[in-house]
């Protein structure tokens, strides 16, 4: 309501300034011999703001729907347009998207083939990401844009390059939003032309400032609507394909024929051997990653063993027999003992005693 009042007030000021100029000129010397139409500025303003009410500017369609003047058909504009076949004949504006999940056993070759297919069909990669899972498999995620006419061709040929596990295709109809935005843009362009015509006829500074402000707002609306239409055109003309590529050793979702008992037994042995090899590989890789810790633990164990051995030698008296105190000799068993029942021999015993005494 405030915008409507402002518009009418601006038109009234424009008419009042013209009438004041005419009154001043009639009191003095007349600048023009032709009579001036005082209703012309007001009619021009009403014609502009009446047209603007259809789009929603300066009050919008709300006041047009609730105003008797707006609801009454205008003779200059003719009868209200009726729905015709032209609206139905307009081409549909569809946004097509697809989400694919793919598997491959030759990752590099498949990635190169997908890039070549995209280039041949006139598309491009909007986004690309790749990486590794563990130490054996790789993955890649692509966002591909292709012309909408080659959309189905890309899907068919991509499924031949690798094993497809999932496909989701969708389309979104934006025809209503597209043509509504196009209509609003056309209205804003007409509004801009009429505002520029009013600006050329304005002589009061306040009117000029008001019209220039309206022109600035209209130009901003035109820029926003033009950007929206460009975005819609890009989404409609190029389809978007989100493709996930996974490197695998064996394809999933592939039906297999039933196996016989020898085949099951052989595959079980093969699976067990492969699992053991993978476990051994993982252990070896883990040890390779932690070799510094293993060396450190070995040095600590060696030092502990050497220290324990040295303490044990000190406790047992060096290189002597275990359990014997240092400096004490243990006599051999049987020295100086006589066998029971044996008679001593005189000369031999005497000679032995003399030798012992020496």
In short:
The chain is an alpha+beta fold and 358 residues long. Among the domains are: 67 residues, no CATH class; 93 residues, Alpha-Beta Plaits (2-Layer Sandwich), CATH 3.30.70.
Overview of this protein structure:
This protein has 358 residues and is of the alpha+beta class. Among the domains are: 1-25 and 35-76, no CATH class; 94-175 and 237-247, Alpha-Beta Plaits. It is built from twelve helices and five strands. The chain has helices at 2-27, 40-55, 60-65, 68-71, 85-89, 107-120, 151-161, 175-201, 205-237, 261-289, 291-315, 346-357; strands at 94-104, 124-133, 137-147, 163-173, 238-247. It has a five-stranded mixed sheet. A hairpin with a 3-residue loop joins strand 2 (124-133) and strand 3 (137-147). Helix 2 (40-55) packs antiparallel against helix 8 (175-201), helix 6 packs antiparallel against helix 7 (151-161) and helix 8 packs antiparallel against helix 9 (205-237). The radius of gyration is 52 Å and the shape is elongated. The N and C termini lie far apart (146 Å). The model is unreliable at 1-6 and 15-81 (pLDDT under 50).
């Amino acid at each position: 309501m405030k915008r409507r009042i402002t518009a009418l007030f601006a038109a009234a000021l424009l008419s009042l300034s013209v009438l004041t100029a005419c009154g001043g000129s009639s009191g003095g010397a007349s600048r023009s011999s032709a009579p001036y139409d005082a209703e012309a500025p007001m009619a021009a303003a009403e014609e502009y703001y009446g047209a603007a009410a259809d789009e929603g500017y300066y009050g919008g369609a709300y006041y047009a729907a609730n105003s008797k003047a707006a609801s009454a058909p205008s003779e200059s504009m003719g009868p209200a347009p009726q729905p015709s076949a032209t609206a139905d004949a307009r081409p549909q504006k569809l946004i097509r998207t697809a989400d694919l999940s793919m598997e491959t056993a030759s990752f590099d070759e498949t990635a190169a083939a997908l890039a070549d297919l995209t280039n041949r069909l006139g598309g491009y990669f909007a986004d690309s990401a790749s990486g590794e899972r563990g130490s054996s498999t790789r993955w890649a995620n692509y966002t591909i844009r292709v012309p909408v006419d080659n959309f189905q061709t890309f899907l068919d040929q991509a499924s031949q390059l690798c094993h497809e596990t999932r496909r989701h295709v969708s389309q979104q109809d934006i025809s209503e939003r597209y043509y509504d935005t196009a209509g609003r843009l056309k209205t804003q362009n007409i509004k801009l032309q009429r505002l520029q015509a009013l600006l050329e006829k304005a002589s009061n500074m306040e009117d000029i400032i008001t019209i220039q402000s309206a022109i600035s707002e209209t130009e901003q609306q035109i820029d926003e609507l033009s950007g929206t239409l460009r975005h819609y055109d890009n989404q409609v003309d190029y389809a978007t394909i989100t493709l996930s590529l996974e490197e695998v050793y064996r394809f999933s979702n592939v039906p297999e024929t039933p196996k016989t008992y020898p085949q099951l037994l052989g595959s079980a042995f093969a699976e067990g051997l492969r699992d053991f090899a993978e476990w051994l590989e993982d252990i070896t890789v883990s040890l390779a990653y932690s070799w510094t810790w293993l060396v450190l633990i070995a040095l600590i164990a060696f030092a502990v063993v050497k220290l324990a051995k040295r303490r044990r030698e000190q406790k047992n008296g060096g290189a002597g027999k275990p359990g014997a105190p240092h400096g004490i000799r243990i006599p051999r068993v049987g020295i100086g003992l006589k066998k029971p029942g044996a008679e001593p021999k005189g000369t031999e015993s005497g000679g032995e005693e003399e030798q012992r005494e020496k």
